Every structure is written in C-alpha cells, then in structure tokens.
Amino acid sequence: MTPFLEVRNVSKSFGGIAALKGISFELAAGEAVALMGGNGAGKSTLVSLLSGLLRPDIGSICIEGADRVLSDPQQSREAGIETVFQNLALCPNLNAPGNLFLGRELYRGFGPFKILDRKAMEKVTVATLQDLGVNVPDMRAPTNRFSGGQRQALAFARAVRGKSKLLILDEPTAALGVEESANVVKTVQRLRKERNIAVLLITHNLEEMRSIADKAVVLRRGHHVGSVLLKETSDDEIVARITGSFGAKAGVAA
C-alpha cells in the first residue's frame, strides 16, 4: 500500500549550517508518528518543509505516490497537509468564524458586488466545532477571550475543516492544563479513527507521544537516528537516541 507521505533523502542548509542531512521516512494514512529530538535536531525545519514555508535543497517529498513541490502553504494545504503550530497562528482580535476562514473566506454575490457571507461562515464554524465536541459560548467574541483549550480547538477545527489527510501538530499541549491536554489527545484519536487522518506529532513529552503515536522518528543534529515502534521500545531507548547514547538496536522498525 502506498504511504500518504514519503520524505526521501531530504537535506536543508542555512548558509554553512546543515539543518537536515538526508532525512527519509514514511507515514501511512491513519498512522500517527511522533517526531522526536532535542533542540537543534531539525524538527522545526522539517515541519517548515512539509508546511510549504521552506523548500529542500536536496531530496523530495512524495504525497500519495507522486512527487510534490510545496513552495508555499497553499500548495501544502492543497496536497492535504494542515499544520497546527505551537503559537496556533490565530488572530486574537477576530472571532471564531473569522479565524476559521482566515484566508479562505466565503462570499455571496458576484464580481465587484461580492460581500462576506458571515452567516454561512458562522454556520459552518458552529457545525465544525460541534463535530469536534467543542463548546464556544460566544461565536462573535474575539478569540483573546477564549480559554487555551478553546483556542487550541479552534486551531484544530481550522486544520480539519477541509479535506486534510495529514495533520502536523507542533507541541499541541505545551501551553495547556491537564484537562485541556487530555481533550487534545481525545480529539486527535477521534480524528484518526473517524477520518483516517495521518498525524505527525512534534513533542518533547514522552507520555503525550505514547498517548497519540504508533511510531517515533528520532532526529539528532539533523540526522535521522532511528524509526522505532513504540510498543516495542522503552522511554529509555527513545531518550538514548535523542541524546546520542544509544547502543542496542532492539525495537527498530522496518
């Protein structure tokens, strides 16, 4: 079966600094992979490549069996890839529909007489959030009045509203409390089960990694130092790979 995503021998440098060096891995539809590594491992650079913010110097990104050039975020979204960044990328002065449709607004009318269809956008926003099990008391309130969990849910809703097939989550619970973090995990698990969405999770949290992911891809100083099945791999081995002290090869995934 053809994987949804194949990263093939991808390298990226900034001046004389090599951020990624020959990275290769696969991600199947419905699969969740944790991208692990310390600071400077190359995680953010890889996410930027997949999100269309950067282009690789060498190598290719293959989506559903075809090489794709992701030269901007719109092309990444058209390929089925949506990213929820750590800062959520929400506009605090806009309400929920304004953020959900930011850059993708709905209009009514035609030609120079088109105006924003606010009622349609609000209707879709309500339905999308309800589908995710999220309650936002006031749809017309600016998002700076929302709780951390509500803002996170809105970022999720924006990512999955379209035909997303791969959801990239950058430290999704870093600024959330225990209950809100648990809701994020439940939402991701539900999306995988009901929509067969693939997930690439960037996290430093080993408990979160195991709650969401099936496999971990570990980067160290721009190198891919292992892909491991989590059910066969201990936390100690993951940490050893991240820090560079790993010696044994148990649990290495094919």
TrEMBL record:
InterPro entries: AAA+_ATPase, ABC_carbohydrate_import_ATPase, ABC_transporter-like_ATP-bd, ABC_transporter-like_CS, P-loop_NTPase. Residues 5-246 form the ABC transporter domain. Keywords: ATP-binding, Nucleotide-binding, Sugar transport, Transport. One of its GO terms (molecular function) is ATP binding. Belongs to the ABC transporter superfamily. This is Simple sugar transport system ATP-binding protein. It comes from Labrys wisconsinensis.
